[in-house]
């Protein structure tokens, strides 16, 4: 049976953190009245993450994973999960559990009213009540604040937090957006939102109660790289890259792998 909700967790070398996250997500899902699946997509892990998942999933239904051996980046990994998911609603959340699954309680009524895209934001300018219970380090905050203004100019005007790792899409919107997306690494969030806007989907925002978890894989170079990715998204929008990819999808040609 097709599940109502697919929860997608992208994971790279999360041996120390993913067990706690899986427990929290699974506990939430098993208490819900709707059908669901939990899909973990592994991004070329080199530690014991797979063993932790296998041990956790033993004897439990509705949990599956994709063990891709090559590291391709978070954007590629989320895209793979979104397109492999089966749910009517497809939500991705981070392996560090910075945004608790209970946030979906606020999302579901919005989807029930017909929404196609609902995201969490850590910024009160997006949603009153947003809280960063454990603030990010100073460098992250500076880069995030200055970088967001640039992102708004280039790709997603009006959204102050494009990078919170808790976003959900109705199946048709997810397939429409992620089938033509191009960004493989950290800038994929803003690309997904830019494409949602391109397709005419209203982006609904709920406030996050967010805890910065230790052990992030995002480096300074990765943060700075998102500036270039924002420019690339703008270029793709202006030059018809996404339109050409749509035509390719319509003719049944394979999705070219972005470099």
Low-confidence stretches: none
Radius of gyration (CA) equals: 17 Å
List SSEs in N-to-C order. Answer: EHEHEHEHEEHEHHEEHH
Number of distinct helices: 9
CATH fold label = Spore Coat Polysaccharide Biosynthesis Protein SpsA, Chain A
Mean pLDDT: 90
Structural account:
With 259 residues, the protein is an alpha/beta fold. It has a single domain, classed as Spore Coat Polysaccharide Biosynthesis Protein SpsA, Chain A, CATH 3.90.550.10. It is built from nine helices and nine strands. The chain has helices at residues 18-30, 49-57, 74-84, 104-112, 138-154, 171-178, 188-198, 220-239, 241-250, and strands at 5-11, 36-43, 63-68, 89-93, 117-121, 131-134, 166-170, 203-207, 209-211. A seven-stranded mixed β-sheet has the order 3-2-1-4-7-5-8, sandwiched between helices. A two-stranded parallel ribbon has the order 6-9. β1 (5-11), α1 (18-30) and β2 form a beta-alpha-beta unit. The radius of gyration is 17 Å and the shape is globular. The model has no long low-confidence stretch (mean pLDDT 90).
Layout of helices and strands:
Elements: E1 5-11, H1 18-30, E2 36-43, H2 49-57, E3 63-68, H3 74-84, E4 89-93, H4 104-112, E5 117-121, E6 131-134, H5 138-154, E7 166-170, H6 171-178, H7 188-198, E8 203-207, E9 209-211, H8 220-239, H9 241-250
Parallel strand pairs: 1-2, 1-4, 2-3, 5-8, 6-9
Antiparallel strand pairs: 4-7, 5-7
Helix pairs in contact: 1-2, 3-6, 5-8
């Amino acid at each position: 049976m097709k599940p109502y909700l697919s929860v997608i967790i992208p994971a790279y070398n999360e041996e120390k953190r993913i067990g706690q996250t899986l427990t929290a997500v699974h506990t939430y899902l098993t208490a819900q009245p709707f059908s669901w699946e939990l899909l973990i997509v592994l991004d070329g892990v080199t530690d014991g993450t797979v063993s932790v998942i296998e041990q956790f999933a033993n004897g439990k239904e509705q949990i599956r994973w994709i063990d891709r051996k090559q590291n391709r980046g978070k954007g590629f990994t989320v895209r793979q999960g979104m397109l492999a998911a089966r749910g009517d609603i497809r939500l991705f959340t981070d392996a560090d559990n910075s945004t608790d699954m209970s946030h979906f309680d606020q999302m579901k009524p919005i989807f029930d009213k017909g929404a196609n895209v609902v995201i969490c934001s850590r910024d009160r300018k997006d949603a009153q009540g947003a809280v960063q219970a454990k603030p990010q380090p100073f460098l992250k905050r500076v880069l995030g604040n200055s970088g967001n203004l640039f992102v708004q100019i280039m790709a997603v005007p009006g959204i102050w937090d494009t990078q919170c790792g808790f976003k959900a899409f109705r199946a048709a919107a997810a397939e429409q957006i992620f089938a033509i997306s191009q960004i493989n690494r950290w800038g994929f969030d803003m690309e997904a939102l830019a494409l949602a806007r391109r397709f005419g989907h209203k982006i609904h925002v709920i406030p996050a109660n967010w805890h910065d978890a230790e052990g992030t894989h995002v480096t300074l170079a990765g943060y700075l790289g998102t500036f270039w990715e924002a420019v690339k998204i703008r270029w793709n929008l202006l030059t018809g890259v996404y339109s050409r990819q749509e035509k390719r999808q319509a003719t049944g040609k394979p999705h070219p792998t972005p470099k």
